[in-house]
Structures are given as C-alpha cells and as structure tokens.
Amino acid sequence: MGTVVSFDVRGGDPDAVRSALDEAVAGLHRVDEVFSTYRDASQVSRLARGEITLDDCDPEVAEVLELGAEAERSSGGWFSTSYAGSVDPTGVVKGWSVERAARSLAGVPGVTGVSVNGGGDVQLLGTPGPRRPWRVGVADPLRPGGLAAVVSAAGLDELAVATSGTAERGAHIVDPRTGRSAVTDLVAVTVTAPRLTWADCWATAAFAMGSREGLAWLESLPDVEALLITAGDEVRCTGGLAARLG
Predict the structure, then answer these.
(1) I need a labelling partner for 156 at 20 to 30 A (CA). Which of 18, 50, 55, 224 fits?
(2) What does the alpha-carbon distance between residue 218 and residue 213 come to, in Å, rounded to a whole number?
(3) Distance between CA atoms of 135 and 152, rounded to whole angstroms?
(4) Residue range 100-104: mean pLDDT, rounded
(5) pTM score, whole prediction
C-alpha cells in the first residue's frame, strides 16, 4: 500500500504471537494484491476496467465497497470510492486492513494490548501495561519533527487515530465534486474514533470539506473527536477532544 506498517503486541505466548504476526503481514500483502490501483492485475483494477464483476472478486472487495458507500452516505458525498469514473476504494482499504490486522492479533490468547500503525494511522486495542494507556503523537504539519498533540487511550478498550493532510504526500486528497485535488484552508485533520476504518474515512472527508464545514460535521458524529490545523496555523478542535489528550 506504499507505506510502512508497524506492530506492537503485549502479552501472549511468543510463538503464538509470532504466528499471528506472520498471518497479519501476509494478510496485508494480500490486501495490496487485491485492492491496489497501481497493480494492473489486481482485482480492483480489473473490476474498474470491466474485465470481471464484483461476484468474481474476493468477498472482501464487496465488503470494502459497502463500507465506502456507507461513508459516502454519512458524509453527504464528501467521501467517495470512485475516481475519474472508475471504482477506487483506496480511501477505505488502508484503515480497514490495519484495523482488521489489529483485531486478529488481539484475538491471540493472553494478548493484553495491540497497536498497529499503518503509515501514521493507528488502531489501539487493550493496554500496553497495568495502568498504562496507549499514547499517540500527532505530527505537526507545519513544524517538521514537532508534535501538535498527544492522544491518550486512557479508559478505553479501543481507540483509533487517523490523519489526512498534505504534509507527507502533498495534495493527494480529491474533492469528489470536481474530481480534482481538494482546495481547502486545511493542512491536516486528525480524527479519533473507536475504529480505524471510520477514523480514516472521516479524516479524509473532513479535509475535503474545509475547516468550518468539516468541524461542524465531525462534531455531529458519535464517539468522534478531531483536531484540525489550517494553513494559517489555526488549531480547531471538537468539544470533547481535550478529554482524549494527555
């Protein structure tokens, strides 16, 4: 998927954890083979060209496309699984696959905590130790090497942190209304939610909306908090974000 995925697993039998890690890594590579729009032979590429139907694809393709359709409905069309008239679930698949990998590892007997980081988007489950919450640093998009905030999972069994913006990959987020790069006043949107699948989708959609509409929409979503940073170095956040910092 053009990024690095890192794993932090606490507890469990070492051999069982190693086996589960091998399966998780193999699963992520399989996701890339099936969903990559950069691979001509991937199922998604072939589906986009009309060479195969959805019924010919792995069941996960239909699952991801339905998640994308739900994200499109929830965001009023600001999120989309199509690009230039072709199917493109790129905006869903990374968060979904990283969350799936984290949950598979959390199911290993004896495992007490899991953190899976896919290119800066993180799914946290359980805890890293007694009375120790997972904590995630949010990179400052305007000050390389600095942190804009630190998110804590204290008191939660699961928390995801996802960021969309221009600092790392440039203007890669598309405005579904125009089919061109989204032009907004934002440089980054970080979203926290229980599931990385949705945190990733919501961060992308809110970035395309811009700070005013994006913040209002994120405030309306249950169990979601967010930090928005504008090109003018203004920081805006949802009302409950302070409880997630530390």
Answers:
(1) 18
(2) 9
(3) 4
(4) 98
(5) 0.94
